[in-house]
Amino acid sequence: MTLEHFCQLISEISHVPFDEIRENSSFRDDLGIDSLQMVNLFTQLSTLFNVGVEVIESSEDLLTVHNLYRALHREGIQ
Questions:
Q1: Angle at 72 between CA 46 and CA 4, to 5 degrees
Q2: Which residues share a beta bridge with 26?
Q3: Residue 77 backbone phi and psi in degrees, to 5
Q4: 41-45 long-range contacts, Cβ below 8 Å, gap at least 24?
Q5: Residue 17: which H helix or E strand, with range?
Q6: What is the pLDDT of residue 74?
Q7: How many angstroms separate the most distant Cα atoms in the chain?
Q8: Which residues pair with 55 in a beta bridge?
């Protein structure tokens, strides 16, 4: 999966416009995604990619779009 496709998924799940989502976007500061929305986003992504919370190695993985993308790719998502 490309980063662009990943950003599209984030947009669809979070209802943040696609053109506002960048690789280095902070979920909280740039996209306005609060902790409850982040749980919902991760739950939907983990269901979609059939991965568990264990893919998150540290809180850093949940800070930016790129960090979460990288964490999911460590698990070999396609």
A1: 100
A2: 64
A3: -65, 150
A4: 41/10, 41/13, 41/14, 42/68, 44/13, 45/9, 45/13, 45/72
A5: none
A6: 78
A7: 30
A8: none
